[in-house]
Design goal:
mainly alpha, Growth Hormone, Chain: A, 2 domains, 79% helix, 0% strand
Length: 429
């Protein structure tokens, strides 16, 4: 019997559904999700600085008017994320992604043709719909259909596309604007996006094909439960679940501090190390965000994700404390590198915690609501930092606040982590 079981396991390891094999079809899905994240964050986040500058230059509209549309987009996308479960069940992952691509393409096209503020606001509302169809909740859900043993690596690699969006899409937009002008640049970039994402989504996005019963992995039933996505935990019940709040609150506080620091990074660092070095610090942080995702992805499946989260938050707090205490350029750059190493992982870690502590059927509901809460709170970061700076007259109080938020978040996220840790493959609370 033992010999027969060993033979079956060997056959499974060599099967096309072996997640550790480079020939496993799920890795094509990871590439597809990487490209989806690259274009979504490139157009929907990093590209917004280009839109604001160019629309202001072309039409003379106040920055506050245009940035108000940007804020509306983020708020709507976080509210809509709460209902991702219903959308996945109604449309399926592939159709939802295709609808997201269509909404984002419509948004960028309308921005290219906009000649009135209401058209800009409509474009950003459409962009919020693109976030729903292509955002982190949907990407994590798709990858959960394909991966269990290597889920952490798969999600880390896919979400690296989010950081890469600022490295690829934003410079492309700036280059095209200089050569073609803003309207033609936006239309050209939109055409590139559609030409890349449409065939990728049609060919690779979807649930895994069924396997022969003799070669079923123990996670097939888990994948089936995710695919059907029944509402086995109503949101009212979820809101009373302590484990849910030990996920939502710390990541909300962490994003509040992280986004606030990143948006104000140049203004904060310029008095300390000069404008050129401050610009270099931004590049260092962005590069380390990519390195951090890739590095953590290689080992995160073997680690306790709550403990990794707490360590990441404490390291960011230590980096901010270093920036607060020194004006040395090398020290500040090193601190930005340490801070940046964990930036991308604050998106990667929540789905890994949720998978371990909630049933597979509840994943989309829990992830959607947690993402809505943390994203909404995080979107307030730049405004909060601005208010604290205005009140105190300097950025020292801002850094102290961000340090406190990071440390409080680290304490909260470890509360459930101190209890018994469930097996990752069970997907049970």
């Amino acid at each position: 019997m033992a010999a027969g079981r060993s033979a079956r396991l060997t056959a499974q390891d060599k099967s096309p559904s072996d997640e550790t094999s480079l020939h496993y079809a799920g890795w094509r899905v990871v590439l597809a999700c990487f490209l989806i994240a690259l274009f979504l964050f490139g157009f929907g986040l990093y590209g917004q600085g280009v839109y604001i500058a160019e629309l202001q230059r072309l039409y003379g509209w106040p920055t506050a008017l245009i940035s108000g549309a940007s804020t509306l987009s983020f708020l709507l996308s976080n509210i809509f994320a709460t209902f991702t479960n219903e959308l996945v069940v109604r449309f399926g992952a592939k159709r939802l992604v295709l609808l997201g691509i269509a909404a984002l393409a419509a948004a960028t096209t309308l921005l290219a043709l906009a000649s009135a503020p209401w058209q800009v606001y409509l474009a950003f509302i459409l962009m919020s719909l693109g976030w729903i169809g292509m955002g982190t909740v949907v990407i994590a859900t798709i990858l959960s259909l394909w991966f269990v043993r290597r889920r952490g690596l798969a999600i880390s690699l896919a979400f690296t596309g989010a950081s890469s969006g600022g490295v690829v899409v934003t410079p492309l937009l700036v280059f095209l604007v200089e050569r073609l002008g803003f309207p033609a640049a936006m239309l050209t970039a939109t055409a590139i996006m559609v030409a890349v994402l449409l065939p990728v989504a049609l060919a690779w996005i979807g649930a895994p094909p069924s396997v022969d019963p003799a070669e079923r992995h123990m996670d097939v039933s888990l994948r089936a439960r995710i695919s059907s996505a029944p509402n086995d935990m109503p949101r009212a019940k979820l809101m009373r679940n302590l484990a849910f709040w030990t996920i939502s609150i710390p990541f909300a506080l962490a994003l509040l501090a992280q986004i606030g620091f990143i948006v104000h990074e140049i203004a904060l660092l310029e008095p300390k190390i000069g404008r050129a070095s401050a610009g270099l610090a931004v590049s260092v942080l962005a590069f380390m965000a990519i390195a951090g995702r890739l590095g953590l992805g290689m080992v995160v499946d073997r680690l306790n994700p709550r403990l990794v989260t707490a360590a990441s938050l404490v390291s960011q707090a230590a980096a901010l404390l270093t920036i607060l205490q020194t004006d040395s350029v090398p020290m500040v750059l090193a601190a930005c590198a340490v801070f940046g190493f964990s930036v991308g992982n604050l998106i990667t870690l929540p789905p890994l915690i949720i998978h371990r502590e909630f049933s597979a059927a509840s994943f989309v509901i829990v992830m959607g609501l947690a993402n809505a809460i943390s994203g909404t709170v995080g979107a307030l970061g730049p405004g909060l930092v601005g208010l604290v700076h205005a009140w105190s007259g300097n950025y020292d109080a801002v850094l102290a606040l961000c340090i406190a938020l990071e440390l409080i978040a680290a304490v909260i996220v470890m509360q459930r982590g101190l209890l018994r840790w469930p097996a990752a493959v069970e997907g049970q609370p």
